[in-house]
């Protein structure tokens, strides 16, 4: 028993040593990628996780995966443990924008390149290798542009309610900024209420139900993700209104459930935020492990959907 | 008047009324209840509907706290129960079949009972501190829920299932009717039999109650099983309300809200005397606070601070020592000892 145990320990030590030199010599074993996911708050996130895991398997990269369950402290803890395990590359989707300087410096001191996926941080750009992800401001602007076109003939005020994402998260801040800046060109467009629905269906429904009580006339709902929009649709139905007709709805993400609602005309417009960045991430991981310099900002390819386009795209939708 | 303010439920009730009235200032139609699509509709109905899962869990929590324990695992139980029910329904050929839905509900509640039994055994048989014993399931439970849902959000389309948390019976939200039934049954069982007295005895002094011949261990297990059962029903309600099981977010941090509800309702965390009606008031206060934040447009960035301030004020008003200091400064002779609530 003891002999077995010591053999296991020895193999473990050997593996650690090997992976530690992996960065210098690409031939000496698998690249180890430590990935810290935000959580699994939505269908989008689930697709994102699956994409990362699948791509790592195909690319032959040893993936160490952890789920931070929406807590920054969990995420910092798992990044620290990756540093201690001496992985080759660390990637993570930051839960919130602020407060990463210390742990990023620790990674830098350990000479481990850090790749930010899908969400940004406010730390200095020298502290991480690259940031791959969607342009949230642009997504907000896309919804804003659509809203301007949709209500271009409106003579009176257009009452807008906004379901924001998790307070302090990059997508919530940027989507709000992009959307509000775009619609500011039409003084009729007015955001009359804006509350956080934490990116979840349950909160989306609860908050929308309360907003419907407080605001008798709502023309447009902008939800920062599909799931909150789907929850809000339930609330709108319970209020005896027709989602997509009595209240126009625009969301961001384009997950399968959202696209289904879009094709059924319950949502009017979705700006895509693609979670399938696994392949691109693995490419970057290999380059970073080989010590290549990376571009600081890489934007994932994205589009927008109307109900008709959604109906066509739905059959081939992976997530 | 003094008799009234002395009643243990006076302050929670007063706080709830003040909160509701404050809403009236911001939303003039706050108290309006109308019929829409054949069911009741209005802010008050929403508070009851969305407060229903919290009330249920808080009722279960009251029992556990009365025994001097605490159950941190209710949020995980909520997630597991909803995940299991939805995944069973999603696999059925006909999601609308009542039989299938009943099977799913039965199995989910059955599993909840098992989880409660596990907690109860850990506390009563192995003597692990309740906060640690239930912490195990709190942490592991979300993982179990994720396993059941495979990390996905499972969306279902089943009218019979939707009835539980989002449907209406005779115009009333079904979830609220469930709460009324559970509350009534519990109240009868607790106050019309010796059960409540025995629970309070165990919570007040476990050793003394054992010496007078109360089977404390059985009662402990029973309390945790009941608490998990309530959480299981709440899990069904939460998932049914959005027609989807979300293993990661369903019931997240609801254990803390439930504990807060119990405390606001006037039950001591030390165990012993408890108040079911107080707990219901406490849960309603918390839900009203959430609704108030949404309808009055408190900016999301300061929501948590706002909540913290209100909860602090509520707790201060509840405290006899604070009231004595704040309101009776000029009359130091006001008797304080009579306020002391010595557990039975």
Automatic annotation (TrEMBL), chain A:
Belongs to the bacterial solute-binding protein 2 family. This is LacI family transcriptional regulator. GO terms for cellular component: cell envelope. Pfam families: Peripla_BP_4. It comes from the Bacteria. Residues 35-292 form the Periplasmic binding protein domain. It is found in: Cell envelope. It comes from Acrocarpospora corrugata. GO terms for molecular function: carbohydrate binding. Coiled coil: none annotated. Keywords: Signal. Residues 1-20 form the signal peptide. The keyword Plastid does not apply.
Automatic annotation (TrEMBL), chain B:
The keyword Transmembrane applies. It is a multi-pass membrane protein. It comes from the Bacteria. The keyword Cell division does not apply. One of its GO terms (cellular component) is plasma membrane. GO terms for molecular function: transmembrane transporter activity. Keywords: Cell membrane, Membrane, Transmembrane, Transmembrane helix. This is Sugar ABC transporter permease. The chain crosses the membrane at residues 9-27, 47-65, 72-90, 102-124, 131-148, 168-190, 219-238, 250-269, 276-296, 302-322. It comes from Acrocarpospora corrugata. It is found in: Cell membrane.
């Amino acid at each position: 028993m003891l002999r077995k145990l010591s053999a296991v320990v020895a193999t473990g030590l050997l593996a650690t040593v090997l992976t530690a030199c992996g960065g210098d010599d690409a031939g000496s074993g698998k690249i180890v990628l430590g990935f810290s996911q935000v959580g699994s708050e939505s269908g989008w996130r689930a697709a994102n996780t699956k994409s990362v895991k699948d791509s790592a398997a195909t690319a032959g990269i040893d993936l160490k995966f952890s789920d931070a369950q929406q807590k920054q402290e969990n995420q910092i803890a798992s990044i620290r443990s990756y540093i201690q395990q001496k992985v080759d590359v660390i990637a993570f989707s930051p839960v919130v924008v602020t407060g990463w300087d210390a742990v990023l410096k620790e990674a830098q001191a350990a000479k481990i390149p850090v790749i930010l996926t899908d969400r940004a941080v406010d730390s200095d750009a020298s502290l991480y290798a690259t940031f791959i992800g969607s342009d949230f401001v642009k997504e907000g602007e896309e919804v804003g542009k659509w809203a301007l076109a949709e209500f271009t003939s409106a003579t009176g005020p257009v009452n807008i309610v906004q379901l924001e994402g998790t307070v302090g998260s990059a997508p919530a801040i940027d989507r709000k900024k992009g959307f509000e800046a775009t619609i500011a060109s039409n003084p009729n467009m007015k955001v009359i209420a804006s509350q956080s629905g934490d990116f979840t269906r349950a909160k989306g429904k609860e908050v929308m139900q309360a907003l419907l009580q407080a605001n008798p006339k709502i023309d447009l709902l902008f939800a920062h993700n599909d799931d909150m929009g789907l929850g809000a649709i339930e609330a709108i139905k319970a209020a005896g209104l027709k989602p997509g007709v009595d209240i126009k709805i625009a969301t961001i993400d384009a997950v399968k459930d959202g696209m289904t609602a879009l094709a059924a005309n319950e949502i009017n417009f979705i700006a895509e935020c693609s979670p399938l960045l696994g392949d691109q991430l693995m490419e970057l991981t290999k380059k970073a492990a080989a010590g290549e310099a990376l571009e600081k900002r890489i934007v994932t390819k994205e589009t927008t959907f109307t109900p008709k386009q959604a109906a066509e795209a739905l059959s081939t939708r992976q997530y | 008047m003094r008799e009234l303010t002395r009643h243990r439920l006076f302050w929670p009730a007063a706080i709830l009324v003040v909160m509701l009235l404050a809403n009236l200032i911001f939303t003039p139609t706050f108290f309006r209840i109308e019929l829409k699509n054949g069911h009741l509709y209005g802010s008050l109905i929403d508070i009851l509907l969305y407060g229903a899962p919290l009330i249920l869990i808080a009722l279960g929590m009251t029992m556990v706290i009365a025994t001097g324990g605490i159950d941190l695992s209710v949020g995980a139980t909520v997630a597991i129960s909803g995940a299991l029910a939805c995944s069973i329904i999603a696999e059925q050929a006909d999601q609308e079949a009542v039989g299938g839905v009943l099977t799913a509900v039965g199995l989910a509640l059955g599993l909840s009972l098992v989880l409660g039994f596990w907690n109860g055994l850990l506390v009563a048989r192995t003597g692990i501190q309740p906060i640690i014993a239930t912490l195990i399931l709190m942490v592991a439970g979300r993982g179990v829920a994720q396993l059941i849902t495979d990390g996905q959000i499972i969306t279902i389309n089943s009218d019979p299932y939707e009835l539980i948390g989002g449907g209406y019976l005779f115009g009333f939200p079904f979830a609220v009717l469930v709460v009324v039934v559970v509350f009534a049954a519990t109240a009868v069982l607790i106050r019309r039999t010796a059960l409540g007295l025995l629970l309070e005895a165990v919570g007040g002094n476990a050793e003394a109650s054992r010496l007078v011949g109360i089977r404390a261990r059985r009662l402990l297990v029973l309390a945790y099983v009941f608490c998990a059962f309530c959480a299981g029903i709440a899990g069904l309600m939460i998932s049914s309300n959005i027609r989807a099981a979300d293993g990661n977010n369903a019931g997240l941090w609801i254990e803390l809200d439930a504990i807060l509800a119990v405390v606001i309702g006037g039950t001591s965390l030390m165990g012993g005397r408890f108040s079911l009606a107080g707990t219901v008031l406490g849960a309603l206060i918390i839900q009203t606070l959430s609704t108030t934040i949404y309808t009055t447009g408190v900016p999301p960035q300061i929501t948590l601070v706002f909540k913290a301030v209100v909860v602090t004020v509520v707790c201060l008003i509840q405290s006899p020592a604070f009231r004595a200091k704040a309101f009776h400064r000029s009359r130091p002779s006001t008797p304080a000892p009579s306020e002391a609530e010595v557990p039975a």
